[in-house]
Amino acid sequence: MNVQFKKGALELCVLALLDKQDHYGYELANKISKRVAISEGSVYPLLRRLAKEEYFTTYLQESSEGPSRKYYRLTDKGRDYLHQLIHEWVQFTQGVNKLLQEGDHIE
Amino acid sequence: MNKKEFMKKLIVGIKKLPKEEQQEVIQDFEEHFAVGLAEGKTEAEIAAALGTPNQVAKELVATYHLEKADHTSNTGNIFRAVWAVIGLGFFNLVIVLGPFIALVSIIASGWVVGGSFILSPLLMLVNVILYPETFIFFDFFVSIGLTGVGIFIVIGMYYVTRYLSKGFIHYLHFNVKLVKGGLKDE
Predict the structure, then answer these.
(1) What's a Pfam family this protein contains (chain A) (predicted)?
(2) Whole-angstrom Cα distance, residue A19 to residue B131?
């Protein structure tokens, strides 16, 4: 699959995961890469950008094993943005799926 | 690649970012390795899953400069943002650098015209000093008139420059989205 294409969907994946609960960087990278073949490293530039755009805030939390972890929490602004993205995503995929189905009829 | 090698390359790639920013990035990746090791992965596995440190660094630098160009659009910021975006891929060389050079030439020529109009009495005086016999009142008044026109051009160029650089930042954003995939209709 096209690398650039996947990167576009990354943003949506990160926001969707954070909508359910707060996560730290490793979790986000790991959860996404289990389902979508991405370079986990590309999650971090994205996280920095979205944090600067105030879509989420960060806080440090001690962990029982190892060093403290930086958690990401979705803001209201981020949630609004997520809903907008989901809306666009659904429209986009529906459109593509329709086209693919129409393709089937021809065969 | 082990953790040390990965971090070394990453740090080299982001050394032009401010110290604070570098520290945060390093912390993020230190944490990533620490959690991965705690889960029983090897350094090599974690590094392989992260991808190449060069690419990660490039994306970090591009993200940083674009963000900065948004807030304060002075010339230096825009230049750095342009280079960072070009760094994202050779594809951009034509698409970003072409319009950028065109834009800079237009702006530069506007300023040069305005500036030389303003300075025209000076040039006329230099001419008179060198060849006193050529002094003509007509030239004198025309050059003063040009100064007036030049002042208006320079004032106009100030707004044109601001407007165009804002527009260009939008274009860079569009370009990053295009390169990163997922063009949305905004």
Answers:
(1) PadR
(2) 79
Instruction: Give the residue, B135 or B140, on which the prediction is more confident.
Output: B140
Looking at the structure, tell me whether residues B56 and B82 fall in a common domain. Answer: no
Number of domain units in chain A: 1
Instruction: Flag whether pLDDT at B96 surpasses 80.
Output: no
Tell me the chain B residues in contact with residue A25 when contact means C-beta distances shorter than 8 Å: 28, 31-32
Q: How many domains does chain B have?
A: 2
Residue range of the domain that includes A56 = 3-104
Which tops the pLDDT comparison, A53 or B75?
A53
State the Cα–Cα distance between residues B145 and B137, nearest whole angstrom.
12
> Which pLDDT tens digit goes with each residue over A41-53?
989 999 998 998 8
List the single best residue of B6, B20, B31 to mutate versus A (max A Cβ within 10 A).
B31
In terms of C-beta density within 10 A (0-12 exposed, 13-18 middle, 19 or more buried), how is residue A91 classed? exposed
* Cβ pairs A/B, distance under 8 A: 87
Residues B42 and B80 in one domain: no
Count other Cβ atoms within 10 Å, centred on residue B170. 10
Same domain, B48 and B80: no
Give the pairing type, strands A69-74 and A23-24.
Answer: antiparallel
pLDDT at A8 over 70: no
* Structural domain boundaries, residue B178: 75-182
Closest partner residue to A2 (CB to CB) among B32, B55, B181 is B181
pLDDT band at B126 (very low <50, low <70, confident <90, very high): confident
